[in-house]
Amino acid sequence: AQKITQTQPGMFVQEKEAVTLDCTYDTSDPSYGLFWYKQPSSGEMIFLIYQGSYDQQNATEGRYSLNFQKARKSANLVISASQLGDSAMYFCAMRAYDYKLSFGAGTTVTVRA
Amino acid sequence: NAGVTQTPKFQVLKTGQSMTLQCAQDMNHEYMSWYRQDPGMGLRLIHYSVGAGITDQGEVPNGYNVSRSTTEDFPLRLLSAAPSQTSVYFCASRNRDRGQKLFFGSGTQLSVL
User: What part of A 62-101 touches B (C-beta under 8 Å)?
Assistant: First the structure.
């Protein structure tokens, strides 16, 4: 069974600073995908970034980057130049050989002006 | 561009009542799934389907039924509602490619009294 761990329940970050959200995973499958989603207070789930286990380079999408350390089974999300609109809950998720996507418990980020 | 449509957005039930949460997608996605979101627990998979006529259980299937008679629709049935089923429910879909992100509906806030 796949397991996703997000150890930071909540974080505060100053506007314009970078923040790193931790995510570790556990799987025995050689082929898997890692995702990050954002959930603002409105409740919608917004896809941010994807990393495949065989991808050679770390994924980047605008201000979002994924620090993928395969040996450590770590897939941390880095948000650069934080904005007030980045205040939200962030979920790490993994899909292994099957179709199922497993989520971590989430990290709440609050950006301070 | 409707995407994934969930109805209703809010619902209050009494213990023992039954109801169906509707989910429809217009993207011709093979894969559809239902999640529930509870505080501190992230999103947990209830049931999923990899195509019309095919369904399978996720992590927390007890008390819920699903069917997939068409590609577009994937309703979730609560057979006899219990207070433990008070939660936010999300329907999601994606195409067959394992690297593809899940598209989420806007969610249903369900309260069981």
Answer: 91, 93, 95, 99-101
